[in-house]
Amino acid sequence: MRATVLTAPGRVGLEQRPDPVVLEPTDAVVEVVAAAVCGSDLWWFRGDNAFDEPRRMGHEFVGRIVSVGSSVRLAPGDFVLSAFKFGDNTCPACRDGFTSNCAHGGYWGAVDGEGRELDGGQGERVRVPLADGTLVRVGATVTEELLPHLLALTDVMATGVHAARCAGVVPGADAVVIGDGAVGLMSVLSAARKGASRIILMGRHTARTDLGVEFGATDVVAERGDEGIARVRELTGGDGTHVVLEAVGHLPAYEQALGVVRDGGTISRVGVPQYTDGPVGRTLFIRNVTLTGGVAPVRSYIDELLPDVLSGAVDPGRVFDREMALDDIAEAYRAMDAREALKVLIRP
Amino acid sequence: MRATVLTAPGRVGLEQRPDPVVLEPTDAVVEVVAAAVCGSDLWWFRGDNAFDEPRRMGHEFVGRIVSVGSSVRLAPGDFVLSAFKFGDNTCPACRDGFTSNCAHGGYWGAVDGEGRELDGGQGERVRVPLADGTLVRVGATVTEELLPHLLALTDVMATGVHAARCAGVVPGADAVVIGDGAVGLMSVLSAARKGASRIILMGRHTARTDLGVEFGATDVVAERGDEGIARVRELTGGDGTHVVLEAVGHLPAYEQALGVVRDGGTISRVGVPQYTDGPVGRTLFIRNVTLTGGVAPVRSYIDELLPDVLSGAVDPGRVFDREMALDDIAEAYRAMDAREALKVLIRP
């Protein structure tokens, strides 16, 4: 089968790989119907994350089960969503609601506990470990119109929900969202769904911030850094907001979050930090600022979000502004890296 | 009057200062009945906090009002508790419950908005700015027995409550408390009051950890660093605890907290960080660990805690294991610095 492989920074393309087969009783093999390119894929593509070996890419996919191991309750033919990390959904961390920290889980495209290469989502098929814990059956007719919304649940929508939930957004809350990428826009949507009355979106790309306004942003601040902080403070009577959802991951974005959060407020991060050390001492402490967020436990949220997607109550798939064939995967990365595309839906 | 002044690291003693008088309509002057030496005073005493000018010391005191400004509702003769920072208790941060981040507040012993030196609590009298926001009338007969418990409310008990509240301790929760100083012991007491069913106290001083056990600790771990982390993991089936209350402030204590917190858990800091930068990127993010806590908003908690102190339901004053005269203030600092005393009650 064809599968996306990143061989070096900036060099991504298709390679032939063996068709996956069931190796464990808990495995399923899924035929990918649609996959996505994620902002976090670009960290690898740009060389910001170091790697020695060629990497299988993609962690957002939906598709149809073609075969299952002997202990799997899902069945061939089921149309399923995958969480962006696999896991058993039964271990203590999973039961706590942190399926992204499953004791037996891991990342697509890495290696499993036996040292076997795992498929990525940007390919024709995927062997899914711990299938009953990882996949969710859609249980409805999957129309073309529905497809992008389902795909958004596999990562970005759930990640936005995680940002808002960790931050404790309540009706009437005020929030800043840093970042106008797909996760930033989903953070806006999630804060709005939780009843935030003011949502200030910090981003410079008008097409994206316009979509953010449709998702519920009440203000847009295009400035960055000190200038952006000053603008947010001006908009909030000098105090900043109780909640900041940080959906970028660079150190300057975290520093910007520190600049716009109100004393006693909460910074919730869902952009993967591209830094190790940073301001964590009195900067947070003296101001009673809480720092929360992390890798979104997608599987924990899908059951709650899926009905709203199926009913049309929420339309997260609007973040997909381009669709390409799997054969054009290199172009998909290029377009997203160049910020010509917000998020690309890939058809194998 | 006599007032405690720190002139250089390790050099603390009494000096004569003018008797304070009411300078603003919102001021009160309090005659100190009892004051305390705080673990955080020792940061200055040891030279860990740099300072150029002699510093007036002490931020924990109770006493009797001797005079008030024209707009103060409290009255001469009232026996009052003071919060360890002064503030108006009416600004937006105060209304959010963060009186320690009052827009018009500040620290004892520093300078006020007009550049005037502020008294510290370790002296005979204190000019209290924003008296109605800062002081709480006890409204009961203050017996000798009651005195240390009231004094504990001015900082350490409220700080323990802040640790437990920020961490979201719920009935049945499991917690690690790092530090067997007064704040660590108050964190144990506060976690127990919130119904934590397991409280692992990390500390090496048997007399202190014994008191911790009386306050509700279920386990004591004397080991530190990697050895201490391994011991806590062993006690918790390998996972660590959902909640960690960090009551020390050194970077190694924060690193220890990272080592014993469970994935998806919360570290709540109430030890003043003695570091600026530290692990704040993926260390927290990948594990979905929340970092919270800060300077305790004592004033926000006193109303809730005072009735339980007056009724005897809670006895935080047990952390005072020594009592000395104000004239012996240098000996009080020495004894606490040498860890001969846990916490000293000072009588002017």
Write the layout of secondary structure elements.
2 copies of one chain form a homodimer.
Chain A: E1 2-8, E2 11-16, E3 28-36, H1 39-45, E4 55-56, E5 61-68, E6 79-82, E7 85-86, H2 92-95, E8 106-107, E9 125-128, H3 131-134, E10 135-137, H4 147-153, H5 156-167, E11 174-178, H6 182-193, E12 198-202, H7 206-215, E13 219-221, H8 225-235, E14 241-246, H9 251-260, E15 261-269, E16 277-279, H10 282-285, E17 290-293, H11 298-311, E18 322-325, H12 329-337, E19 344-347
Parallel strand pairs in A: 11-12, 11-14, 12-13, 14-15, 15-17, 18-19
Antiparallel strand pairs in A: 1-2, 1-4, 3-5, 3-9, 3-19, 5-6, 6-10, 7-8
Please report the distance between the alpha carbons of the first and last residues of chain A: 10 Å
The CATH superfamily of the largest domain in chain A bears the name Medium-chain alcohol dehydrogenases, catalytic domain
Largest interface (CB < 8 Å): A-B, 40 and 40 residues
Give the beta-strand count of chain A. 19
What is the CATH C level class of the largest domain in chain A, in words? Alpha Beta
State the oligomer: homodimer
Low-confidence stretches of chain A: none
Specify the overall morphology of chain A: globular
Tally of separate domains of chain A? 2
**Share in helix of chain A:** 25-40%
Number of helices of chain A: 12
Largest sheet of chain A: 7 strands, mixed
**Which whole number gives the mean pLDDT of chain A?**
96
CATH topology of the largest domain in chain A: Quinone Oxidoreductase, Chain A, domain 1
Rg of chain A (CA only): 20 Å
The CATH architecture of the largest domain in chain A? Alpha-Beta Complex
Going by helix content, strand content and strand pairing, the class of chain A is alpha/beta
Strand content of chain A: 25-35%
